[in-house]
Structure prediction request, 480 residues.
Amino acid sequence: MDRHTARWLPESLFGRLVLVLAGGLLLAQLLSAAINLAERDRLLLTAGGVRHAQRIADVVKLLDPMGPAERQRIVAVLSVPPLILSLHEKPLAESDGPGAGTRAAMFGAMLRASLGEDRAMRVHPGDPSAQFSRPMAGPGFGRGPGAGPGPGMMMGGGPNGHRMPPGMGASLRTEVQLRDGTWARFDTVLPPTSNGVPWRLLLALGVLLAAVLLLSFFAVRWVTRPLHVLATAAEALGRDIHSPKLPEDGPREIRQAAHAFNTMQDRLTRFIEDRTRILAAMSHDLKTPITRMRLRADLMDDDDLRRHFEGDLKEMEAMVTHTLEFMRGLGGGEQRQLVNVIALLESLQSDNEAMGRSVRIEGQAHAPYIGVVSLLKRCLANLVDNAVLYGGRATVKVEDSASMLTFRVRDEGPGIPETELEKVFEPFYRLEGSRSRATGGTGLGLAIARNIARGHGGDITLRNLPEGGLEAVLTLPRGS
Prediction:
């Protein structure tokens, strides 16, 4: 997934998991609601159809053994909307075949189940707005037992006829042949499909969705919290190798990750401490031969050769000392405390002025900074030394906010080529022309300063000023 595709996704893993769960649950609830609504309509239709089919079957069985006069009385009593009953010599509806419609076919099957397959019947969609009437008398009645109505005869429920109630469901016209050949026509209306909003169903689904989402929220938070703790611990480890270890509790996978992280921290600590001890031992061992060489240099008769020899010895001693300071800057074994930033800068300013250097301080820090005093002083001192040695004078500008403390150390020198702005942070790297052994530099000043800054969670960057000169920007995060 590219950056443009994932732009609409939440940034955090917690947000993405909640989004996936919420989307899946919402889709599942919508599908469930659609299925429930369709099933409800089907059940209503089936229930209503069975009831009407059973009533028609009962009426047919009641009319079969009766004569015309008795049938007329029964028809007048039973022909009440939504079931209109009338008797005819011939069927009027078409045969219930493929064109009869789904509801008509289902209704015919239910009616045959009640009357038997040998009964002639026809089911067809009817006209719910039709009015059905019957004459009070006519030829064909009283022709004897079993005689059916004459041609054109129709008996309806009531002297003025009946009309189907408006707003009802699908109308069906069912015609069933009685035993004597008379056709009984039933115009009926099936229960309408519900078009109203099923508020109770929607409320139940909504409550279920809210409950599952709430449970998912806490479940995802519970699952992703160890990742947040691990990320915080990794960030703290980058600032201080001796930061507290992670608790090895919780689920098995979390315990394994915490144990692996603590093991890595122990190995890093041992590696840095072993390297620091080795370099300290080397520094101590090198001081003895350097001291002997200095004593022997004093015995030289050639003054010019003696000065060059002593200069090389001083440089060697400075390299050993600065290398040890570089390694100590990685460890930072001292405890952190509140540091008065302005007082620290004024102390550096006073030390430089005592050596005849020009250092100016601008800006204010609104609150003390939590850090290691000696390391912060070494970091700022290295930046100020570089500015004074290679730019003539230094200006330290302090910028403070709730989240970041920034120091801008500017000089008035020639600057550094753009391609060298990062290389100068490499240990023992020195620029040709701008830096030389005569200045006393070892190429470790900026490397030590950046290590100290990163040990406090910050960083140092360099940039050439448009008006000339170089600016070193030290950023230290608040609350680290």
